[in-house]
Amino acid sequence: MADPKGFLTHDRELPARRPVDVRIRDWREVYEDFPAPKLTKQAARCMDCGIPFCHNGCPLGNLIPEWNDLVYRHDWREAIERLHATNNFPEFTGRLCPAPCEAACVLGINSDPVAIKRVEVEIIDHAFTEGWVTPQPPTNRTGKKVAVVGSGPAGLAAAQQLTRAGHDVVVFERADAIGGLLRYGIPEFKMEKRHIDRRLDQMRAEGTEFRTSVNVGVDITAAQLREEFDAVVLSGGATAWRDLPVAGRDLKGVYQAMEYLPPANKDFEDSPINARGKHVVVIGGGDTGADCIGTAIRQGAASVTQLEIMPQPPAGRPGSQPWPTFPILFKMESAHEELSDGDGDRVYAVSTTEFTGDAEGNVRALRLVEVEGPQTGFKPIPGTEREIPAELVTLSMGFLGPEKGALLQDLGVEYDARGNVARDKTYMTNVDGVFVAGDMGRGQSLIVWAIAEGRAAASGVDRFLTGETALPYPILPTARPLV
Ligand SMILES: Cc1cc2nc3c(=O)[nH]c(=O)nc-3n(C[C@H](O)[C@H](O)[C@H](O)COP(=O)(O)OP(=O)(O)OC[C@H]3O[C@@H](n4cnc5c(N)ncnc54)[C@H](O)[C@@H]3O)c2cc1C
Ligand code: SF4
What we know:
Radius of gyration: 23 Å
Number of strands: 15
Bound molecules: flavin-adenine dinucleotide, iron/sulfur cluster
Number of helices: 19
């Protein structure tokens, strides 16, 4: 145990965010550096619990008390070994994960939880700085070929595990760069893309091959893929978005979040879909919506308003979501702080009824109505209709599952009751030798689950190809968050 009294003597502390008026003038990550002595105190708060519930909260089974202790003792080298033992990409989760481990931390029962995510990101950043993140090429080669379709965190985790196990792995990506939603969904101010690039350098040096701008199922057929490769991992994500079929939906200026964010991630200064000088409305109160807010603000929007159909969640845990579940709470993400009116520009319990436009077919306004809670099916409240200016609208209302395009059709995969690609407990679909990992099998989820699925699917593939495996299997495909 790091410090037997650490949880009594130190309060939880996180790095400060850069001042709003400074950070909205650039695209860099929002957090200031966190001095080493402060981090030591945060690691010292860990109680090294007999039953560390943080393990249960994390689908990767991260060895959290071990690395808290190692950081407290300044044994950074061993800390990164223990962190990499369960997580291929802590630089992604350490920056982007909503940290179900912290929601499950035992200290959180009657105090603030350990700042686990901050300790994680400092360990991996330190390791990169020291040059300890080096390629780990396989010592033996199996001669088996594996295709990974989709280069998000699930595909990358599966590819790294399988390459290290000695297989020849090719990752196909239809976009022009590798990374999936890490690359073109999540904005630079949440995670700078250089973190993806340096990890890809390591993977290339280990022997993983990457082919971009290849839409599998179109540019290379399912039959060709099966002929060339001994096994296939499908990790194409849950990219079919939910739409808003109201009057005026086809006006110019109404976009899906994943139409708006990718060009902004490619060209920070001059994206072709630009919020500069416009009144922006973001429909959907979740994290994707927050990413649209921060992007629109950096592009110079005249105003940004976020609409959410659900009522405003509570600030603290309600009785219905006790420890160690992952609660749905009112969050003040960095992007929300950047709204001109703080949280006043976040409007809850409203539903959009119509978009109206000008003579050129451009959206100009949005009509909304206040609604009762989900129990009544979001019944409109009479007399509450109103109109707000809207010159650019982004729809961030979630995703429905994988796109059922040529690839999945031609392979002949089956779907589960929720429309995701079905798999057995080795992550294999109904098609022999074709596996599925990440959002494509689980539905819209989180990076940490995608990495866990990629690792687990790799063990299934390895066993399929060689008859045995020493690769870890962190989660069953049926595992779900603690809710
Ligand atoms: C805007 C946004 C922000 C998010 N922010 C967070 C966050 O902060 N923290 C968090 O934990 N989660 C976040 N998420 C969720 C998280 O990004 C996903 O759960 C995760 O990326 C899923 O990983 P994946 O590997 O399954 O798929 P994805 O990351 O979706 O990657 C799938 C890839 O497959 C490619 N592909 C699909 N079909 C084909 C094909 N036929 N041929 C070739 N390539 C193909 C796609 O182009 C894509 O690049 C966010 C999601 C969105 C949309
Ligand atoms: S639950 Fe919290 S206090 Fe206990 S071991 Fe995990 S991080 Fe440390």
